[in-house]
Amino acid sequence: MRRIAIRPATVLHPHPVLLIGTFGSDGKPNLMTASWGGICCSDPPCVAVSLREATLTYHNILGAGAFTVGVPSRKHVQVADYVGIVSGRSHDKFPETGLTPCKSEKVNAPLAAELPFSLECRLLQHHKLGLHTMFIGEIVGIQADEEVLGPMGLPDIEKTRAILWGGLGNNHYFAVGEKLSEAFSAGMSLRGNPRT
Amino acid sequence: MRRIAIRPATVLHPHPVLLIGTFGSDGKPNLMTASWGGICCSDPPCVAVSLREATLTYHNILGAGAFTVGVPSRKHVQVADYVGIVSGRSHDKFPETGLTPCKSEKVNAPLAAELPFSLECRLLQHHKLGLHTMFIGEIVGIQADEEVLGPMGLPDIEKTRAILWGGLGNNHYFAVGEKLSEAFSAGMSLRGNPRT
Lengths: 196, 196
Fold this sequence. Notes:
Two copies of one chain form a homodimer.
Chain A: E1 3-6, E2 15-16, E3 18-23, E4 29-34, E5 37-41, E6 46-52, H1 56-64, E7 66-71, H2 77-85, H3 93-97, E8 101-103, E9 110-112, E10 117-128, E11 132-145, H4 157-160, E12 163-165, E13 172-182
Antiparallel strand pairs in A: 2-12, 3-4, 3-7, 5-6, 6-11, 7-10, 8-9, 10-11, 12-13
């Protein structure tokens, strides 16, 4: 390998594909795709999503104080891409994609009924970082397809068939691949490493 | 499908596997694994990583005002797991794993020379959320193995062979799988959907 310095860029592997559900002040449900986001705190359980002020979702979250974060499956690739391309200001994305909006039981935001699971979030904080503003939501509930739950009673990535985005260096969606090894276990054998 | 409500939990698919490089106040390089993190702003380019106050890395970042975020490849699974299990307070993780610490050219933090790429970050903000505190770093440089760069001159996920963590519902590392379709393109055909 030859290690070189390259220009600063927003690359990280992998990026998630997150479908953010919100209501407008007129009650219209909207859905948009975001990849700048992820879990950010274990207790309380929180998720962060960064959005540009230009998006309708930005204003919907501030207005309602709530949002949902849906995780699409492999069969939703086309839909996930579409809701990231067009604006809810000029499109009615639920009927256009065939997804069914359901009101969250816990917060004032819609979720798409067909997704494997959706986090229901209450807005806790938001921080303007630059082009993007980060919204931090407490996860107060989860709606999940019973069929995607694993032995822990939680969504199991082998059942949700979640997708990921390759990012700026390879602008494609990818499937989750083969299972490699157990976490918090695979590294234990290094404890006996003669170099320690 | 049958949609049910489950308890709030920190599940999202996929989670990245991030190796955070920091210097202690004594100059000792440390590396730890984090999965609560990701890109959070395009301009300036920023990455967020959430850490518990109990970790050495938490204090190292506050002390140095800098950190690196390294992305491991499939061949680093065991190492990535190990540095998330033991503390830098009682272990010297670079020699223990065989990784080589190099000082970042841009910030006061080390990176592991063998990783496909590492983001060099200057601490911009930090926010206590609860058990975790979120550190937001501006990406001021990237060190990359020339062999993992794609046509865009950026790390290409098909070359980095990055891994992901399945999360609380399936506690294993996974490979990136098959390429599905092009982003910002796959959904365009829905524009002509008769439901619109």
